[in-house]
Amino acid sequence: MNIFHYRNSEEFSEEMIVLGIGEAFELGSYTTLGGYNPQIYIRINSVYPVEQAIKADQKYRNFILEDVMLKHRIGVLMQRFLFTHKENGNSGKELVEKYTDWFWDQIEDYFMGKLPEEVETELFQKKSRADE
């Protein structure tokens, strides 16, 4: 919802009081931005999913947060995999060339949706431990 007010409007002050009370009781939150184009952002917290989980005697799950956490784990494991890999070679140049070819093959596979087996194994071991 967008609400526009002139700077010295009394309605604006009353609405700020109501927003402040709502935030104090954790019914929502708001943000006020000043400057050339002042704005207020309001977020109303939805308690419905939590209430339904409590009524059904289930653990509440935030699937968006779980997806973000999974992607973070994949990123951490993938970086560890990429930057701890050791190649064999007879010279520094050969080591660099082999590692570079291997590295970019792994990156290409990653962006095509294929995780290295080592990363998948470690990911699902950690995931199964976290679910317990």
Descriptive terms for the model:
mainly alpha; 132 residues; single chain; 5 helices; two-stranded antiparallel sheet
Give a description of the structure.
- This protein is mostly helical and 132 residues long.
- It is 61% helix and 9% strand.
- A two-stranded antiparallel ribbon has the order 1-2.
Give a short overview.
Helix 3 crosses helix 5.
How are the elements arranged and paired?
Blueprint: H1 10-24, E1 28-33, E2 39-44, H2 48-55, H3 63-84, H4 92-111, H5 117-131
Antiparallel strand pairs: 1-2
Helix pairs in contact: 3-5
Q: What does the main sheet amount to?
A: 2 strands, antiparallel
Judged by helices, strands and strand pairing, the structural class is mainly alpha
* Cα gyration radius (Å): 25 Å
N-to-C span: 42 Å
Shape designation: elongated
As a percent range, the share of strand residues is 5-15%
Poorly predicted spans? none
The largest sheet has its strands arranged as 1-2
Helix and strand string, N-terminal first?
Answer: HEEHHHH
Q: Indicate the percent of residues in helices.
A: 55-70%
Number of helices: 5
Strand tally is: 2
Mean pLDDT: 79
